[in-house]
Amino acid sequence: MAEWLTDNGLLLGLALLDGLAYAALVFMVAVGLNMVFGVLRIVNVAHGSLFAIGAYTAASVGIFFASLGLPAWASYVALLLAAALVGGILGPLIERLILRRIYGQEEVLQLLVTFALFMILEDVQKLIWGVQPIMQDTPMKFLGTVEVPFGEDTIPFTAYQLFVLPGVAVATLAGLAWFLRRTLTGRVIVAVTTDKEAAMAMGIDAAKVTLLTFTFGAALAALGGALASPTTSLVPGIGAQTIVLSFAVVATAGLGQIEGAAISALMIGLGRSIAVYLAPEFEVVVPYIIMVAVLLVRPQGLFGVLETRRV
Amino acid sequence: MSATDRALAAPPRTMRLPEALLAVLGAAALVLVAFLAPWLKFVLTVALAKGIAVLGILLLLRAGQVSFGHSMFLAVGAYTVAFLAPAVPEALLLLPLGALLAGILGLVIGLFVVRYRDIFFGMLNLALSMVLYSLLEKLYALTKGTDGIRVSGLTFAGITPDRETQEWVMFGLALVLAIGFGLLVRAYLASPMGRALAGIKTRETRLEFMGVSARRVLLFAYVMSAVMGGVGGTLVAMTTRHVTPQLAYWTSSGELVFIAILGGAGSALGPFLGATAFELVRVYAAAAVADAWQMILGGVLLAVILFAPGGLWGMLTSRLKGRGA
Amino acid sequence: MSAAVHGGPQDRGANRPRQATPLLSARGLRLAFGGVKAADGIDLDVMPGEFLAIIGPNGAGKTTFINMSTGYLKPQDGTITYDGQPIIGLSPRAIVRRGIGRSFQLPQLFTEHTVLENAALAIAAHAGIWSPFTPLLRRGYHDQAMALLDRFGLGPVAQSRADALNEGARKLADIAMAVALQPRLVLMDEPTSGVAAAEKMGIVETLVRVLRDTGVTAVFVEHDMDVVARFADRVAVWSQGRIAALGPPQQVLNDPAVLRDVIGIEASPPSGAGH
Known about the structure:
The complex is a heterotrimer. Chain A is mostly helical. Helix content of chain A is 73%, strand content 4%. Chain A has one domain (27-133, 166-297). The longest helix of chain A has 39 residues, at 2-40. The mean pLDDT of chain A is 88. The interface between A and B is large, with 45 and 49 residues.
């Protein structure tokens, strides 16, 4: 047993650290998806594409900054700039031009409209950035690695994944909680989420709230992508991968749950990384197994509220 | 009645005759095209195969449910052929086998997913299809991963036809099955169970208060749709002679739903109309702009939903109705 | 009879055999939602063949009683027997199959189906819905459904989509679907609410005629005292989860305490009462 631990303990430790960083990224995407669903009542299949485009844009801006001879810390500006650009441009564009036309329509059609958007954005992404892998890891290299103490040993891990990713995720969670509970705009969003008709009857401008929420959700997805970009090489298909994973996180947590999304992101992130070390063939399956298992026991998700039908 | 209501509503009774007529005309047109443009035979066969799978999607749409994971049943049918063809090369045996296995999987998964509705129904199907996808991709020793499996030589009723004949046999088989399942679905949708299925969409509680289990009604439709997915999958595998995990990926399921809406959910003809249009656009768009065919398809889908919510079938019938009025 | 009643035992069942056993019998039903007592010791017997009206202010627990009797809600305490058998804990489906039908305050019709299909589906549900490939509107079901709709005066709208009907026709169709299941007891939740005043009496007359013809026992929640006075054999007055009064309409509807506390009328009793 002791031998097994010395052999595998470090791997497990690495899995935990990996899982934490991974959960942070997944949370960023899932929480945006969840907020958008809360207000628009639309599950945005193209949400993953915003993640992907955010990632590619961050890499491009980072490479561009480097070509200008800007210092390495500027690559962090590139990450933020990319998120703001993608969220600020694509968000309003998609909401105003397309989603606005399908509010209140059948779910099937809403899903398919965002599926169409997904198809379009996938090709837009391929047309702009091609299909060759792109790698821009300046932000990660800039901070170097840290020796994380683990028992008697230490595990080398990048400071970026150890501090920046979880840090941003926690800040997002705390910031969102504060924003939604303490600011007027936040409370309006909550009001619209809870009861759209009542909120509109109170004179809330629903059009403005949906625009704001969608833009914000898009920016969160793009920020997630931007943050992910230094840790992996970018290839076509990351958007499709990301969206199904965030579906799993959101469904596990329960629709509309923000803190819940953080916890289920952790469960799924850690579960996946542990699987990477224990049974790599099943790595990709783990998030869905977790989701199915949770929904079997709690059909409304871990933290979801059961909606009762009125007779 | 909103535009989208119309998209998913049952067809008015007066359309029955044109529907039968159009089915005959459509089948004749397909045969004609296959004769005149032999290179399209392959595309049309795949379209018919997918159309059968989309018929299954249509059943669930009638209940107001959308499965974003239904291509898993298509993949089960396809991999059944790929795995078993070396041992059992007989197509006429593989076909019911693929359907049976898909049906069994549909029953097992169905027992679980029919307890859920709307987004959760869609997402659970998606998650389960992703489990199958991941297994197909990762269990390399068994499935050769993303490389996929080449389907070995097939026999038809014991005969090994030459390539040209086999293409015709596959085309004919797909057409016959398409017509058969089309008729079956039409009969089912008009039956008490089919009409109860449509009731799930508008008033599920009433079903319960009539003493009818809505879950059982939905389960029957789900298994039926899984079987049709399996049949579509076996046909796809026999036609393309190559299967990959991509068949089970969620985007493939999205395509099936896409085709259902493109064709229009108002008629059992819609799926075939949609599948033919989809495959033709895909082939020609891919030839014209290799990197942007998906974008073109996405644009078509957006345009259909925003401007022609009844799908191609809806456009066709409103044209006919306009003339009749 | 253990119900808290205003009148004496001789009041009950004026036009029924005295020794008949109740069709539905509730004892000590209790159910609270948070602090609100929707049922606070309900004892009630529904006798075969009678028309029992339930009246009382909103929130008194009238619909809760129907929901408990049809398996939609489970009481925290108490028993309900139907035809001598306990039914608490059975699913709504199982209860329907035993012969208790219900209609809804908000009619529960298949909105995208025609009225005829709605009725035919209910008939099929009773006869056995599990035939996947023969048409719903094959001759038998079609004719039975038309006959049913004709009895409710809905023949002319048989081919209309259910969501195109006016409220009165919707209510009737809703009840027709319950009757199609050939129940022995029908529980109707506000069969005339939302119906135009002019239509109201016509609807109730149709209802009573059909139900009497089929010998169905009926319990209905009603706010219109004229309707109650004309059609109920007995009236149960609900108040804060309890039965405050129970008896023939001429007695209950003339009880000053009921008038004041429950119905909220200070003036004279409704015009129909007393005859």
